[in-house]
Design brief:
The complex is a heterodimer of chains A (384) and B (337).
Chain A (H helix, E strand, L loop, with lengths): L8 H29 L3 H6 L9 E8 L7 E3 L2 E7 L8 E6 L8 E2 L3 E5 L2 E5 L4 E6 L10 E8 L6 H9 L2 H32 L5 H12 L4 H18 L6 H25 L3 H9 L4 H12 L1 H17 L2 H6 L9 H11 L4 H21 L1 H13 L3
Antiparallel strand pairs in A: 1-9, 2-3, 3-8, 4-5, 4-9, 6-7, 7-8
Chain B lengths: L1 H32 L7 H41 L13 H8 L1 H32 L5 H9 L6 H12 L11 H8 L13 H27 L3 H9 L4 H12 L1 H16 L3 H6 L9 H10 L5 H30 L3
Helix pairs in contact in B: 1-2, 2-14, 3-14, 4-5, 4-8, 4-11, 5-8, 6-8, 8-11, 13-14
Classes of the chains: A alpha+beta (384), B mainly alpha (337).
Chain lengths: 384, 337
């Protein structure tokens, strides 16, 4: 493959550039929320995240203290203080007293306001308004100033979403849903897959066809009858209809066709000789399955486990139908969806929550990519 | 919360333990009922045969029961419900279907679904193929592929937040914190509220799914490309074919089968697309799709199960040709193994 095209330098260079463009387009969106989630929340709305390493600057208006704050100094009346008060300190670049020229004077210079009044504002925000006559009135002088703040990164957003926005609790709920939903189907599917691959019985071909058919049945077909069934069971036994047990079983059911399909095609490909020599040694099907098939199938079991884990963790539809929306049941995806409604413009909350929801899949994905790709290839190239 | 963690661990133990106990116990029981050892030769052979008749059903039994409850019964029940009224009590014939085809939202959903079907599978397959070919030629191709593959691990809701941030709109003259509007403004254009532009907003939502699924197409197609015999490519080079001819006339025809599989897999996914529309627009501004409309009717005003089921059936009808094709392919491949 390497030999055939792009023999010219320009051609090869073009390939590198093209791939680089694709990679940038595909990574920029995720990078955007990662960077934003670490920014100060005032800076997120003040500048685009791609500018987050530059200082953010803004122009603001303020009012100096009124005449009552004046003191006499060297025969002059002076009002002193800091424009930022006790708040966060920024760097003043320039200031002014007219809204039409808010940055008329550079910081550190003394501006002549007429009538013998001068105003000096320094880079650190400290100011001195002095006059030869006493100040009067209870409204202070209006000032405008342009200030800049150095880039500020913080983990504050993570603290907020994890502990006060309920994301931490939802994270636990997601784990509670995901782990049993991943573990339970494996054994059930493995036994069925072995029987469908290596045991002869009437109706086997039909069963395989049914399972391949079920692979593509849209989830939407199951929702209403199952919702009715769960409500019915709930009211019959006087228990809540939205329970973790309910969703574990639902995910097991929805994951089974793929599990059986994937495991069967792998188990059917195991060498016949191993099975037959074990059978000659007097091993039963059960023993063959437990001692030979299960250990040999480890790679495909891992593939399925990763698939199911990612699928369940990322699922929104099943969780919204079979679980409640209270804090004790709402999973991460549903919580993120709810936050999109209630905290629509609060990007520090949304980007951080989104990053918390995707971090687990990303870790699983990167550490187990090999198994994931293997499952993907086995699951789709052969028919699904 | 402690109780919740405890119950989850408890369920894993019970679930796995129960499965093990069932399979082991049922197997033991079968051996006890039809003993093959310690009995006369003829009886042993007879019993072994009986065991062979029963054992497969012990193995597939649990899976069959769960599949029946969670998939087979619901399919039949959904079909039945689509002929009943909102509460599922009275037979209404085809009234739900008549309602559907006269309903503005439904027709809008069908139109949008057709748009999605026309654009997303084609775009994913095409981009995936291009990237697979390009990354095969460079030394850092594996890293590039990993990064393009990565969105596949992200949930649709997470991806929606990621892209909503890109489409974010601030009033004109303000600092645009959404990347798209910032770029537009930088080049002197007008910032827009992208997701509320009727018709075009569909494409902004599709971009999200394309972003997620291109990696899938790329991985599958890349492995198919590796399977192309080197000789065919070398012969083409010797005959003086240029790279485009090699791509379109030699490589693509040899992987048609895989392209079809990728295309149909993404097609099914598109028919079920729900999360993206729900979180981005919830069907407002004419961006509704069938799966989201169905969810809407399931719960709207206490839920109209008749109409919800009808919409589900329509999604199912669109899937059936692919289902039949899949079963045919699988039968051909296994050849009765």
């Amino acid at each position: 493959m390497t030999a055939k095209s792009g023999k010219s330098f320009a051609g090869r260079f073009g390939v590198h550039i093209a791939v680089l463009v694709f990679v940038v387009i595909w990574t920029i969106p995720t990078l955007g929320i990662l960077v934003s989630s670490l920014r100060d929340k005032d800076q997120i709305i003040a500048s685009g995240w791609w500018n987050s390493f530059a200082s953010s600057s803004q122009t603001e208006a303020g009012r100096l203290p009124a005449a009552s704050a004046q003191a006499q100094k060297d025969g002059k009346y002076v009002i002193e203080g800091n424009i930022f008060g006790d708040g966060a300190k920024r760097n003043v670049n320039a200031f002014g007293v007219k809204s039409s020229a808010p940055t008329q004077y550079p910081a550190g210079t003394a501006a002549d306001l007429g009538d013998g009044v001068t105003l000096q504002m320094n880079a650190d925000g400290s100011f001195a308004l002095s006059s030869s006559k006493a100040f009067e009135g209870d409204r202070g002088q209006r000032v405008y100033y342009a200030s800049s703040a150095p880039p500020k990164f913080t983990t504050e957003n993570y603290k907020t979403v994890l502990f006060s926005e309920g994301i931490g609790r939802s994270f636990m709920n997601s784990l509670t849903v995901t782990i049993p939903s991943t573990v339970i189907p494996i054994l059930i599917a493995a036994f069925a897959a072995y029987a469908l691959a290596w045991m002869r019985f009437p109706g086997r071909a039909l069963l395989i066809a049914v399972i391949i058919g079920l692979l593509v049945v849209p989830l939407q077909m199951s929702l209403i009858p199952l919702l009715k069934l769960y409500n019915g069971v709930g009211s019959f036994f006087g228990v809540p209809s939205k329970t973790y047990l309910g969703i574990w079983l639902a995910h097991t059911g929805f994951g089974l066709p793929f599990a059986i399909y994937l495991l069967r095609s792998y188990i059917a490909g195991l060498p016949r000789e191993i099975m037959e020599s074990a059978r000659i040694d007097g091993a039963s099907d059960f023993e063959i399955f437990v001692r030979i098939v299960l250990p040999l199938s480890f790679p495909v079991l891992a593939s399925f486990a990763i698939f199911q884990f990612l699928w369940v963790w990322n699922d929104l539809l099943v969780a919204m139908v079979f679980l409640g929306t209270e804090a004790d049941q709402i999973v991460l995806t549903a919580k993120l969806n709810a936050l999109l409604g209630s905290r629509g413009g609060d990007w520090e909350i949304l980007t951080t929550s989104a990053f918390v929801t995707i971090i687990v899949p990303l870790i699983v994905f990167f550490s187990l990519q090999r198994y994931f790709v293997r499952g993907l290839l086995a699951g789709s190239v052969k028919g699904g | 919360m402690a109780a919740q963690i405890f119950s989850a661990i408890f369920v894993i133990i019970i679930g796995v333990g129960g499965c093990v106990a069932y399979f082991w116990g049922a197997n033991k029981l079968l051996d006890a009922v039809f003993p093959s050892r310690g009995v006369s030769g003829a009886t042993a052979v007879d019993n072994l045969r009986r065991q062979g008749l029963v054992r497969p059903w012990l193995f597939v039994g649990p899976a069959m029961i769960i599949l029946t409850i969670y998939l087979i019964y619901p399919v039949v029940e959904t079909l039945r419900l689509s002929f009943l009224d909102r509460g599922g009590a009275n037979f209404v014939g085809l009234a739900n279907y008549e309602w559907a085809f006269g309903d503005h939202d439904f027709r809008n959903s069908i139109l949008n679904n057709v748009l999605w079907l026309a654009v997303v599978p084609a775009a994913c397959t095409f981009l995936g193929l291009i990237i697979a070919v390009l990354t095969d030629k460079i030394w850092w191709g594996t890293i590039a592929k990993s990064l393009i593959f990565l969105p596949l691990a992200i949930s649709f809701v997470g991806a929606s937040v990621i892209w909503k941030f890109i489409y974010e709109y601030r009033g004109e003259g303000q600092v645009q914190i959404g990347l798209l509007n910032a770029i537009i403004q930088h080049f002197g254009g007008q910032p827009q509220v992208w997701i509320s532009l009727p018709f075009w907003n569909n494409f902004f939502l599709m971009v999200i799914l394309i972003w997620i699924q291109t990696g899938f197409a790329m991985v599958i197609l890349s492995s198919a490309l590796r399977g192309i015999p080197e000789e065919t490519l070398e012969a083409a080079v010797i005959d003086g074919a240029n790279p485009f001819q090699i791509f379109w006339k030699i490589m693509v025809p040899q992987i048609w089968g895989t392209i079809a599989v990728v295309w149909t897999t993404i097609t099914i996914l598109v028919l079920k697309v729900f999360d993206i529309v729900l979180t981005m627009t919830n069907g407002q501004w004419n961006s509704q799709v069938l799966a989201n409309l169905m969810f809407d009717w399931m719960f709207r005003g206490g839920g109209d199960f008749g109409r919800g089921a009808t919409i589900a059936i329509i999604i199912m009808i669109a899937v059936i040709p692919i289902m039949v094709w899949n079963i045919r392919q699988a039968n051909k491949e296994t050849g009765g193994h």
